[in-house]
Write a structure and sequence with these properties.
Number of strands: 38
Structural class: alpha+beta
Helix content: 10-25%
CATH topology of one domain: Rossmann fold
Strand content: 25-35%
Radius of gyration: 26 Å
Largest sheet: 8 strands, mixed
CATH architecture of one domain: 3-Layer(aba) Sandwich
Strand order of the largest sheet: 31-32-34-33-35-36-37-38
CATH superfamily of one domain: Alpha/Beta hydrolase fold, catalytic domain
CATH class of one domain: Alpha Beta
Shape: globular
């Protein structure tokens, strides 16, 4: 089949006395945000190219069709399709969700406390059918405090422009005008008369908080807060004691917070602490006390408390610890729970308010786990909570735990209908030195029969941006590779926060290359330890993890058999220079500001995947993207693919697949998500000669 060719249109770009050629810049439309809302505005020539690439991909993976079906059924077979969540007791009702065998979306149910009469208040599949839409993204689903109204937000394109709807639960009739172009979040007022929401500006940034009176025209909506900085985005929520609304505005590493009383007729948000560059803080209130979770003079956070926000006489509640991330608080009348993270592993603690004694909650013998706690009811006068954990080999388990007696009862276990034996798998936590001696945590999951002699293929997953950490939780999908003797390794590289804020700082801005060096160091370490060998590694990452994939494949292509890049941020220099794009301005603290800072420009230019494609052999590469993705525009991977075709000197596969009706997260619905995983895994098995 003929290789797709994107038309070249020579374009010389320049910045800071540096010039470079970009033959494919023309595919980026000036009205790109309009295209995200309405794909019919896409240039016909570009659409034709994307469709040709899709056909080319389809052709080369034609012999995997049966394997894709097999993988789909296999992955779906590990999911309990007809499942229910544990109920949550509100004041008058218990609420829970369920999924069904045939449905792709969840159903929200409730029953009055003490009653057996179950009421269905939301059915995602029925709602999707009503709207007759291919893509169906649910942003928020909230019930009013009087249990009479359901608020929900929908995105029908994948572009994350959410429309808010409010309807009566009793008759499903809309009670107010729909509200378009919001961030999707809905906050009801305690008196059930209003909702608060954030509106997107022309650049798709939520910078305004409005109050809408239910049943009135949206033209009458009150603007109660506006963020002036284009780099900051806003949100609103209710305090733990339901006495205040807190408005939070922030970029990635600086925040500011405002508050007002829930009973204020005309809300006038008051500033808590003026923003200070590099300082994050989040205030909550409980029992006449304010608690502040902050990294002010505490790199990895601390928690302080005070009685009055007017004078703010803060005292330490939870002190900082070096390279230990202090998490937020969960309040009960007699207990305060919190979390900590160190070396990519989480811990839970509980403090007895009566005697001030704090202790760690240990409820599993496994060392590599993700623990979590959730409340089972709105009434905080209880000693009972839900404690959950999973590990790379152990499905999620939830216990009803008595904080006083320390008794626990297993109340829910993630069921794997097709069968799963945790003892068939080995989970290891390794560390390897990076180029500068820093030790990088690695989580390995493999079948007990997989040989460690260099003969095995290995999937090396990485992300390493925004302080987002990759946690060692359970994923049933991975076993379709692990059971075929492909080792799964997650590299906890710098750019995340697995080892605290410093771990993030050492992987961003002018330290970004540490992220790539860490990943390459992990790959070489696993080769040295005979988990795999050169050209048997499949690199995988999405979004900013796609930036990682693009950078490392340009740097060390011989390490890899293949690379999977999902919605990849690969034209990072071009995007950084365009301040009109939704995310650019807010990410200056993550990647730098190339347009206004020459040092930042030179540094980004030196690693940006699109700008550093070389004339050389590349491994097999699969690139996936979505037409309505507003986070990483489809033109980035499209340009990258076209340029890579011009430069690569090998005959390996280079495939681009574009979802024409989806966004950053790919297809909507359960089956859609499984199809995408099956597609990626079929590609992996094909290049690994396992088909």
């Amino acid at each position: 089949m003929k290789i797709p060719q994107l038309r070249k249109k020579p374009d010389i770009k320049s910045c800071h006395n540096t010039s470079w050629e970009d033959n494919y810049s023309w595919i980026h439309q000036n009205n790109i945000l309009d295209v995200l809302k309405d794909s019919s505005k896409l240039l016909p020539e570009v659409r034709k190219y994307l469709e040709e690439e899709n056909a080319y991909t389809e052709h080369h993976l034609e012999n995997t069709k049966q394997k894709q079906k097999e993988l789909f059924n296999e992955i779906k077979g590990r999911i309990k399709l007809d499942d229910e969540s544990l109920p949550y007791k509100d004041i008058n009702y218990e609420y829970w969700t369920k999924t069904t065998t045939k449905g792709n979306y969840s159903i929200k149910l409730r029953k009055k406390i003490g009653s057996n009469d179950i009421e269905e208040i939301w059915n995602g599949d029925l709602e999707k059918d009503k709207l007759n839409t291919e893509y169906f993204g649910i942003g928020d689903l909230e019930v009013s405090f009087n249990d009479k109204l359901l608020g929900y937000s929908l995105d029908l394109k994948g572009s994350e422009y959410y429309t808010i709807y409010i309807r009566e639960i009793s008759n499903s009739k809309l009670v107010t005008e729909k509200i378009d172009e919001t961030s999707g979040s809905i906050t009801f007022s305690l008196d059930n008369k209003f909702i608060f929401y954030s509106k997107l500006d022309k650049f798709h940034r939520p910078r305004k908080i409005f109050r809408h009176k239910i049943g009135t025209s949206i033209k009458e909506d009150e603007l109660i807060f506006e963020e002036k900085s284009e780099a900051f985005t806003v949100g609103i929520g209710l305090s733990a004691d339901e006495k205040y609304y807190f408005i939070s505005t922030s970029d990635h590493n600086t925040s500011e917070q405002y508050y007002f009383n829930v009973d204020e007729e005309q809300p006038k948000p008051k500033l808590i602490k003026k923003r200070e560059k590099g300082v994050l803080y989040s205030v909550n209130s409980w029992e006449e006390t304010f608690y502040n979770h902050t990294n002010k003079d505490a790199e990895d956070f601390k928690i302080e408390k005070c009685k009055d926000l007017a004078d703010q006489k803060w005292e330490i509640f939870i002190p900082p610890k070096k390279e230990v991330l202090i998490g937020g608080l969960v309040f009960l009348d007699n207990w305060i729970l919190r979390s900590e993270i160190s070396n990519a592993l989480g811990k839970l603690y509980v403090k007895n308010k009566e005697n001030e004694i704090e202790e760690e909650l240990i409820f599993s013998d496994e060392k590599v786990i993700i623990p979590s706690v959730s409340l089972m009811q709105k009434d905080k006068n209880t000693d009972l909570v839900h404690l959950s954990y999973s590990s790379p080999k152990t499905p999620g388990r939830t216990y009803l735990y008595n904080l006083k007696s320390k008794e626990k009862k297993l109340v829910k276990e993630q069921e794997i209908p097709s069968g799963h034996k945790p003892d068939d798998y080995i989970v290891e936590r390794l560390e390897c030195p990076s180029h500068d001696g820093k030790l990088i945590p690695i989580t390995i999951t493999r079948h007990k029969n997989t040989k460690i002699d260099g003969s095995s293929n290995l999937l090396l997953y990485g992300y390493g941006s925004y302080g987002s950490s990759m946690w060692p939780g359970f994923s049933s999908t991975r076993f379709s590779l692990i059971d075929r003797n492909i080792i799964w390794a997650t590299a906890h590289i710098r750019g995340g926060m697995e080892k605290g804020m410093k771990w993030w700082k050492e992987g961003k801005l002018l330290n970004k290359k540490n992220t790539f060096e860490d990943y390459i160091s992990v790959a070489n370490f696993l080769i040295k330890k005979k988990y795999t060998t050169k050209r048997k590694i499949i690199g995988m990452g999405g979004s900013a993890g796609g930036l990682l994939m693009g950078a490392v494949v340009n740097q060390e292509p011989d390490l890899f058999l293949g690379i999977i890049m999902a919605v990849p941020f690969v034209d990072s220099l071009t995007t950084n220079l365009d301040h009109s794009l939704p995310l650019t301005v807010g990410e200056f603290d993550e990647f730098g500001n190339a347009k206004d800072n020459k040092e930042h420009f030179d540094y980004i230019y030196s690693y940006a995947p699109y700008n550093n494609i070389k004339k050389m052999d590349y491994p097999h590469i699969l690139i996936t993207t979505s037409l309505s993705d507003n986070r990483v525009l489809f033109d980035e991977p499209a340009k990258f693919t076209a340029k890579l075709r011009d430069f690569k000197t090998d005959s390996n596969l280079l495939l681009l697949k574009t979802e024409m009706n989806a966004g950053h997260g790919g297809k909507s619905g359960r089956d859609g998500a499984i199809e995408e995983v099956a597609f990626d895994y079929a590609f992996i098995l094909k290049i690994s000669n396992k088909i």
